[in-house]
Amino acid sequence: MKKIAPLFVLMASVLWGSMGIVTRYVADIGFTTRQTAAVRICSAAAVLILFLLITDHRKLKIEKQDLKWFLGTGLGSLFINNLAYAETVQRASLSVAVVLLYTAPFFVMIMSILFFKEKLTLQKVVALLLSFAGCVLVVGLSGANAGSNGAVTLLIGLCAGFGYSLYSIFGKVLVGKYDSLTVTVYTFIFSSIGTLIICQPASMAQRIVENSSKMPLVIIGSVVTLALPYVSYSIGLKYMESSKASIISSFEVVAASLFGVALYHETLDAYNMIGIICVVSALILLQVNFHKNT
C-alpha cells in the first residue's frame, strides 16, 4: 500500500483541481461566497453520513478523547481554510490567493519535523521549492496585487495556507486509528457547523428551494470534488509522510489549470508551462529513492 499511497494523494489533487467547475456552477445560482462553501461542505457531509449509515454505521463511532483532533480537521483546517481563502480572494487577485494557499507545504514540513520527527532532507527541500515556484508560475503573478491593505491580506492568506496544512497534521494522527471515511465524515460535520453559522442559513435555504432542480448536480459535484478527494488524501496520508503528501497535493494547481484549458478555453503561456514542469518535476523527485542499493 505504501507504494501506491502517492497515487491516492495525486488523485485527490486532481479532484480538488476540478473544484472550480462546481464552485462556478454553485456561485452562478446566486449563492454568496460563504454560502457556496456551505452548500458544498454540507452536501458532502450529508452524503458521507448517509453512505456510512447504509454501509457500515460502526465507522461513525469515535472516542471522546479524539474529538479535539476532529475539531482540528473540521474547524481548524477545512473551515478556516475555506473562510480565509474566500476572504483573500475578495481582497486580492485569485493568483495571490492561490500562492498564499500553497504556503501550506512549508507549514506542514515544519510541523512534521516538530511533531512527527520527520527528517528534513535535501530531496524534500528541493521538491518543496520546485513545487512552490511552479505554483507561482502556473497561476501567474504579473499585475497581481494584494489589495489596499496588503499586510492584512497577506496575514489572511497565510491563515488559509496554515488551515490547509493542519489537515495533514491532525489527519495524520487520526488515520492511524480510524478509517479514512470516519476521519473525512467528522471533518465535514464540524466544518458544516462552522459554515452554517456564518452563511445566513435562512436565505441560503430559500435559494436552495428556489433552485431545487439544480441541487442534485450540486450534491454530486460536491461529493466528487470535495468529499472523495479528502477520503483519497486520507488514505494516502496513512501510508506516507505528511510533508511529502502536502507537496504532492500542490498538483491541484496544475490540474485546475488543465481543466480551465479543456473546459473554459483558457490559455497557457510559456511561464505557465514552465510552472507545470516544475510541479511535475517535484512530484517525480519525491519518488526517487537515492538510498536504494544498486
UniProtKB/TrEMBL annotation:
Cellular component terms per the entry's GO annotation: plasma membrane
Primary localisation category: membrane
Amino-acid biosynthesis as UniProt keyword: no
Organism name: Clostridium scindens (strain ATCC 35704 / DSM 5676 / VPI 13733 / 19)
UniProt cross-references to InterPro entries, sorted A to Z: AA-Vitamin_Transporters, EamA_dom, EmrE-like
Alphabetic keyword roster: Cell membrane, Membrane, Transmembrane, Transmembrane helix
Subcellular location: Cell membrane
Pfam families according to UniProt: EamA
Positions of the EamA domain: 5-139, 154-286
Annotated signal peptide: none
Domain of life: Bacteria
Transmembrane spans: 36-55, 67-86, 92-116, 125-144, 150-171, 183-203, 215-233, 245-264, 270-290
Similarity section: Belongs to the EamA transporter family.
Stated name of the protein: Putative inner membrane transporter YicL
UniProt keyword Cell membrane, yes or no: yes
Membrane topology: Multi-pass membrane protein
